[in-house]
Amino acid sequence: MSDTKGSSFMELRRGPWTLEEDSLLIHYIALHGEGRWNLLARCSGLKRTGKSCRLRWLNYLKPDVKRGNLSAEEQFMILELHSRWGNRWSRIAQHLPGRTDNEIKNYWRTRVQKQARQMKIDSNSSLFADAVRCFWMPRLLEKMAASSSSSSSLINQTSLPSSCSTAVTHDHHHQYQADETVNYQYSEGGFDDPAGSQLLFKSSSNSEMMNEIPNSASTCSFMDDDDELGTLLENSSFMDDDSSWLVDELWHVRKVHEWGGGTGI
DNA sequence: AATGCGAGCAACCGCGTTTGA
DNA sequence: TTCAAACGCGGTTGCTCGCAT
């Protein structure tokens, strides 16, 4: 079972890869292709396990791996797909070309869970899901709208109760492939419609439009009970930047959720 | 300038699944 | 059908770098 058996006589390297190791790996794969990682590890001259070689290639050296910050669209996709699939990082990564499961996992842990920690709530709770859906995702949509006047390949919609939606204006209609059977669609009307609070999916198999609200049982219901707070939140900027919300305000959300008999944490 | 600390990310580890002999 | 090897996924660790003191 051990990946290192058979090469136990050889001292295996660990830790950061050197340029020489990278070029060895790239060269070997150029000649022999991907796969058979243990064979590669034995034959390439690398003193690494097959696992290590595979990881290095897939997460860093592979030509189509994107580097750099995640775009608003990519962040939106991660939030949306995670709400549907949970920690299925590789599955989520399949829908973000050039991004790896490791990168997405790191994003979730360092950025998303950080927000949950600041709010002192469980990142797996419905409350946090509400906050993401009501404040973070609309903010990303705003950013996407602002930048999409140039160009955009992705887009979406989300389940935004009218009480939660911020002023989002769009001049564009976008579409992206979400998985084998579902196309996500977003159009401007979806947000302008006061009742436009649902996630719309267009089945590619039967072309029917379907309404779906992930986590619908808890979707922002707490907002309906507090118009004053709703106004406050709508008028507020909930992220100082890409990943930092105004924690004090979100703390109020938490309190309203708890006191208002919300879905709990 | 030196030190401490935290965020971000690359890499490792354990384990479940798949493959093929 | 069985079993060992290989593969892939998700959780965790630890290194690096930037910022604050």
Describe the fold and architecture.
With 265 residues, this protein is of the alpha+beta class. Among the domains are: 19-61, Arc Repressor Mutant, subunit A; 120-259, no CATH class. Helix content is 45%, strand content 7%. It has ten helices and four strands. The chain has helices at residues 19-32, 37-43, 50-61, 72-85, 89-93, 101-119, 126-147, 188-192, 227-234, 247-259, and strands at 174-177, 182-186, 199-203, 209-212. Strands 1-2-3-4 form a four-stranded antiparallel beta sheet. Strand 1 and strand 2 form a beta hairpin. Helix 2 (37-43) packs across helix 3 and helix 4 packs antiparallel against helix 7 (126-147). It is elongated, with a radius of gyration of 22 Å. Residues 1-9, 152-248 and 261-265 have low confidence and may be disordered. The chain binds a DNA duplex (21 and 21 nucleotides) through residues 1-3, 5, 14-17, 35-39, 49-52, 54-56, 58-60, 87-90, 101-103, 105-107, 109-111, 114. It is found in: Nucleus. Residues 11-65, 66-116 form the HTH myb-type domain. Keywords: DNA-binding, Nucleus, Repeat, Transcription, Transcription regulation. Residues 9-61, 62-112 form the Myb-like domain. Its main location: nucleus.
